Amino acid sequence: MNVDEEIEQLKEEIKRLGHKQNDGSYKVTFGVLFNDDRCANIFEALVGTLRAAKKRKIMTYDGELLLQGVHDNVEIILKEAA
Question: Whole-model pTM?
């Protein structure tokens, strides 16, 4: 998969695992994404895909580099109509 395809797949996984907000965005924590078996099988570099999506302003989260365990409670927000 190329980066665009991985970002599209990540958007679908966030919609599957996350919670829809009143503004139409979706919210999920990094720990939920990282520990999901399906995501583990799809994404070789989940953190890299998240960074690429953040750089393109498709999603947002605090910090630059997310680490499993340390950042499990960091909220990742998939912006509305993304």
Answer: 0.91
